[in-house]
Amino acid sequence: MRRALPPLNALRAFEAAARLGSFKAAAGELGVTQGAVSQQVRLLEVWLRAPLFERHNRLVVLTPAARAYVAEIGPALDRVAAATERFGAAADVVLRVNAPASFALRWLVPRLARFQAAHPGARVRLETSNEALEALQAPYDVIIRGGPDAFYGYSACPFLSEERLPVCSPALLERIPLRTVEDLRHHTLLHSTSLPRLWEDWLARAGAADLQPAAVLSLDHFYLTLQAALDGIGVAMGPTALAAEDLGQRRLVAPFDGPRLPARSYCAYVPEAKEGDDLTLAFRAWLQGEGNGPPLSSARRR
């Protein structure tokens, strides 16, 4: 059945003028001119076929029927506003994620389309940081860091294991063969400044602690180190999880099977207050599935 509803703008103008007792005050609240409020009230009076105000010079007084009318429509407009706000909040769900820059660029971002395809109503707001979890100021739904560690107020969920071993481009090996660990003395070793001892630890395990390379290049993020390796600049101590797709596509190769340096797993840390949030838990479960699944390149070929 068709509803007999008056113009909404006219209702808003009337309700504001009735509540505030002034066309001028209503105009200020609604962000329009006093004349616009007066015009909308007159429009409503025409639609209702009855006066709403008794006008006495600059003073306007509600008629008895108008007082009863505004008592009904005022709460109704409040309910409309509240329902609209709730709808907007539900329709604009934001999942706030914080992850290290290298992990985000090399592993998470290429996979995010799959999560968003499964949750089309959600928006992921991804921020990168290498700060310790306790040092983060902004609230996040999921924080990705190494672990598992115990943090008060958070649950930890490991989802991706990690190791480190030398990687380089096939083109580099064509120029400078790398058949034994000793051949590294002819190469540039690429370092990540966040973990400066990786090459030292690996060479010690490989029995070549005293080896001196041809050159050393230090970069401040793993993704820069891996990019330098892809560009044939040198040999990087590659994190296997972040280099998995490049290794699978042979854009990078691992010239030695070992030794492999153990590394901390990637973990999803979720605040206890978010343990009941469906979207947060869905993202955590998705991370576990992606971490246990095939490399992205294999998934694309299926």
- Strand order across the biggest sheet? 4-3-5-12-6
Structural class: alpha/beta
Number of helical elements: 12
As a whole number of angstroms, the C-alpha radius of gyration is 32 Å
CATH class of the largest domain: Alpha Beta
Per the principal axes of the C-alpha atoms, what is the gross shape? rod-shaped
**Spans with pLDDT under 50 lasting ≥5 residues?**
298-302
Q: Which whole number gives the mean pLDDT?
A: 87
Q: Indicate the CATH architecture of the largest domain.
A: 3-Layer(aba) Sandwich
Topology pattern, helix = H, strand = E: HHHEEHEHHEEEEHEHEHEHEEHH
InterPro entries: LysR-type_TF_proteobact-type, LysR_HTH_N, LysR_subst-bd, WH-like_DNA-bd_sf, WH_DNA-bd_sf
Keywords: DNA-binding, Transcription, Transcription regulation
Domain HTH lysR-type: 6-63
Family: Belongs to the LysR transcriptional regulatory family.
